[in-house]
Amino acid sequence: MVPSYKELIGKVGGHMQALGKDRPELMGSFQKLLGAAEGAGGALDPKTKELIALALAVGGRCDPCIGFHAQKLVQLGCTRAELEDMLGVCIVMGGGPSLMYATGALAAFEEFGGEKAA
């Protein structure tokens, strides 16, 4: 778990912007792909798509991805119960390492304003 997901995604976001200036075709293509996959439309709603993205971030052990997708889930109105249901599946499928990153996902969710534990 990182000390601050807000700081982490701020730093990573800055590096992504720099890469976008140096390689606009690369980052533009990635943004287009991201929009097509996660945007409105399709059979799944945006919150479900973000839950899947965060599950993959936990399984892939990507702290910046956890931060970006936890932030988006808070913006989309994800509840703690929904998040914890998804994290339970991550833990079953990924074992101990996914449990460690699941705790990070909960911390990120709370840091971005999501519901805290009772």
What's the topology here?
Layout: H1 5-22, H2 24-38, H3 46-60, H4 63-75, H5 80-111
CATH class: Mainly Alpha
User: How large, in whole angstroms, is the Cα Rg?
Assistant: 14 Å
- What is the terminal separation in angstroms? 21 Å
Helix content: over 70%
Give the total of domains: 1
Which class do the helix and strand fractions yield? Answer: mainly alpha
SSE pattern, N- to C-terminal: HHHHH
Low-confidence stretches: none
CATH superfamily: AhpD-like
Task: Give a brief outline of the structure.
The protein is an all-alpha fold and 118 residues long. Helix content is 79%, strand content 0%. The two termini are 21 Å apart.
Structural commentary:
The mean pLDDT is 95. The relative contact order is 0.16. The chain is an all-alpha fold and 118 residues long. It has helices at 5-22, 24-38, 46-60, 63-75, 80-111. Helix 3 (46-60) runs antiparallel to helix 4 and helix 4 crosses helix 5 (80-111).
List keywords for this structure.
118 residues; mainly alpha; AhpD-like; 5 helices; 0% strand
